[in-house]
Specification:
Helix content: 40-55%
Number of helices: 14
Largest sheet: 7 strands, mixed
Order of helices and strands: HEHEEEEEHEEHHEHEHEHHEHEHHHH
Distance between the termini: 99 Å
Number of strands: 13
Structural class: alpha/beta
Radius of gyration: 30 Å
Bound molecules: adenosine-5'-triphosphate
Strand order of the largest sheet: 8-7-10-11-12-9-13
CATH class of the largest domain: Alpha Beta
CATH architecture of the largest domain: 3-Layer(aba) Sandwich
Strand content: 15-25%
Shape: elongated
């Protein structure tokens, strides 16, 4: 017993002695080498939120880890699987030599004093990880004035290069018990569509107008804030099948570097679930509802049927047959509310795109400006659009047959999809103009 006690005391003295040695050596080290230390926990750059600044530093340091292989501790593969993302491990240190200016980066983690279990919903607790940057005080101006902003912009660029946009689709909520526990209402895959505005077959001035509108929208955060309006924009794309509506959405997402949420309305149980889906979307995204006329058509037919039954005295209003549990009960007012109601103010930088093959049949309430700000007609293939497709598929700017094709396109209605198909796997010498015309 006595032995144990003396052993305990010895251990206690040992740890106090170690702590004193550590403090003295730190003090002496600081006297010899007076350095400044910045802790990046609450850092926010001029135009960056805390999380964005942290992500940028993370990416910058991860990239440095890539060059110094012996420092790689944590490796995570992103969802594409073909791009390995490196990051610093806790308590790991990286020394960066910037042409004679030495800086030390240290990754650390705040250990909570009290152990707690987080059971809440919504945002998880703050990330306890943080970075420390140390440097000699004579480099203060360089580090604070130049290096940090360099790290933020470089890190942002690296993160953008690494990041793959995602294509989300909603899981069906029809037939689910209201209390069924679900991790998320959306599932996603990497978005691989390579469509760009440059390769989109469309009149040049129309295309330029859309690109300028998107760029204006993206940079207008303060403008929307000043007006007190939700930072969102509605696009209505209409035209016959195969004129490039889906291709245009992909080009928009690639241009803005946004994720796509492809909302399948027929899988949404009711308006409440639609609101839940909206709340789960992240900022900087395009929410797409394709073939909205199909859904509206369903509602109209259901409404007419019920009205006819009431009119014929077959049923009383109170006894209107219930919609089957297998069908979506989303309504037009629910959709309108989804697009511009209160719920859209829960996030920012969102674009809503509706597509339809039947513009005329759409309810005027859905088409009204302010709700759908930009209406874009995707039309049959013009000669100008054909030249873009010829460049895409055959890499040619002109050909002896172009004049004939111009005439044929003016006389026939051919979709860009049909032209694209005719040009596929052809070389510049065997373009079958008759095939283009035959498809009309
Ligand atoms: N304007 C276009 N520019 C370039 N390619 C196009 C264009 N329109 C169609 N295509 C080609 O045709 C294919 C089908 O087009 P897309 O799916 O974008 O048409 P859509 O209008 O969305 O059709 P739907 O109404 O049937 O959904 C695309 O994969 C693309 O290769």
């Amino acid at each position: 017993m006595e032995r144990l006690e003396s052993f305990g005391k010895l251990a206690e003295w040992g740890s106090s002695a170690l702590s004193i040695i550590f403090r003295v050596s730190t003090y002496v080290w600081r006297r010899i080498y007076p350095y400044i230390e910045i802790t990046f926990t609450e850092y926010a750059g001029e135009h960056l939120k805390r999380s964005e600044a942290y992500a940028a530093i993370d990416a910058y340091l991860g990239d440095l880890c890539r060059d110094t292989a012996f420092r790689i501790r944590a490796m995570t593969s992103n969802e594409g699987g073909d791009n390995v993302v490196f990051s610093m491990d806790d308590n790991e240190e990286i020394v960066v030599d910037l042409d004679g200016v030495k800086v030390w980066w240290l990754a650390s983690k705040a250990v909570p004093r009290v152990t707690s279990i987080y059971l809440g919903r919504g945002a998880p607790p703050e990330d306890p990880r943080y970075y420390r940057l140390a440097f000699h005080h004579r480099h203060r101006d360089f580090v604070v004035g130049h290096y940090i902003s360099f790290v933020l912009s470089k890190g942002k660029q690296i993160a953008a290069d690494q990041r793959k946009n995602k294509l989300y689709t909603n899981k069906s909520t029809i037939g689910c018990h209201p209390y069924e526990l679900r991790e998320t209402l959306w599932s996603h895959v990497p978005f691989e569509h390579r469509a760009k505005f440059e390769t989109l077959a469309m009149e040049e001035n129309k295309k330029r107008g859309i690109v300028e509108d998107l760029d204006r929208f993206r940079s207008n955060r303060d403008y929307y804030r000043k007006l007190g309006k939700p930072w969102k924009r509605g696009y209505l794309l209409y035209g016959p099948p195969g004129t490039g509506k889906s291709t245009m959405i992909a080009a928009m997402a690639n241009h803005l570097d946004y994720d796509i949420y492809d909302l399948e309305l027929t899988s949404v149980k009711d308006n409440t679930d639609m609101r839940k889906l909206l709340i789960e979307t992240k900022d900087k995204c395009i929410i797409v509802i394709e073939d909205v006329d199909y859904m509206l058509d369903l509602w109209n037919r259901r409404k007419k049927l019920i009205e006819a039954q009431i009119g014929a005295g077959k049923v009383k209003a109170a006894l209107v047959p219930k919609v089957s549990d297998e069908e979506s009960k989303v309504t037009l007012p629910g959709l309108l509310n989804f697009i511009d109601g209160l719920w859209t103010s829960c996030g920012g930088e969102r674009i809503i795109v509706l597509t339809t093959n039947n513009y005329e049949s759409l309810d005027p309430a859905l088409k009204r400006r302010g709700r759908m700000d930009i209406h874009v007609e995707m039309s049959y293939c013009s000669y100008e659009a054909f030249k873009i497709l010829a460049k895409n598929y055959l890499n040619i700017d002109g050909h002896q047959l172009f004049r004939k094709i111009k005439r044929l396109l003016a006389e026939n209605e051919v979709t860009p999809a049909e032209v694209a198909e005719a040009l596929m796997h052809k070389s510049g010498d065997d373009v079958d103009t008759q095939e283009v015309a035959d498809r009309a």
